[in-house]
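Sequence in, structure out.
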Amino acid sequence: MNIEGIITWLLKIVLSPQVFAPIVFPGLLTALMVLLIIIWAERKIAARVQMRVGPLYVTRRLGGVLQMLADGARYMFQEFIIPDSADKTPFVVAPVMALTLAIVPFAFIPSAPGFVPIKSQYSLPAVLALISTIPLSVMLMGWASNNKFAIQGAVREAFMGLAYEAVVFLSALAMGLLYGTLDLEEAVTKQWLPGLLLNPIAAFTFFVGMVMSAGKLPFDIVEGEQEIVAGPYVEYSGIIFGIGMGLAYLKLYSLTLIYSILFLSGWNPVITPLYSIYPGLAGIFLFIKSFLLMLFIVFLRAVYGRYRLDQALRAGWRVYLPLSLIAVLLSIFLRVVNIV
């Protein structure tokens, strides 16, 4: 095989859905890029709205854009310390397991027509099930730390998980009933109107459950900086601490992709010439929708205070859970009267 043949073979492998989607887009590399940009945008939006001074001396003329790279370098080269009182094996394994569980859902999320690594008619519940296992790793991190603040953060994660997971699953089920499929790719093709207009109740409850799941304000309860420092991550340092703090953004990225597919028509409208060049490029529309949604969610940090744990749980069980059940009934009604 000559050099051109080897290059063609390598490009074919890299551009195949099984490799390109989970690793490049919408996978790990894109997720890391989004993580850096969203953290920077979150800080800048909060600084502008709340008139904070913010970082002034790291590329001041560029708006402090290199601050994220500086933070990343600090995490990379900072010493990773394992406390003597910690349960060492789960203390090290839990963050790696959490990061793995945050990446695997990208294998089931389609980014363009026919462009999905693992094609399944149950891709929607598969993605949500994988995302719902991440809190187990977070609880393990808190328990293994053997620190009262970390354990309290882990308990909060357990309580919050029970409050939001039912809401998210029922809202997704409502859209599955509405489209007559649990396949994310088919859900896009069956939206003659965006799901946001077909079932606005499900769109609202899924959005709230998504914010609760990602732990973004006003549901920034697990970390609780003012009272429990950093929750389950308080004993971690270095790159492992960075992984723990980045989990929320990876979950948010996955859930906003799901939201864009279910409620915002996914990658539609697809420009045919763009799709003919390379199918994966059609996912640009999906990425733009997801990214704008993430920007709106981090904007909430600047305008909302944090709920207490009891307030968030009460809202989850008494308000959003009944609304998600109503969303399911609305989808059934729409199917019965043949509106969809």
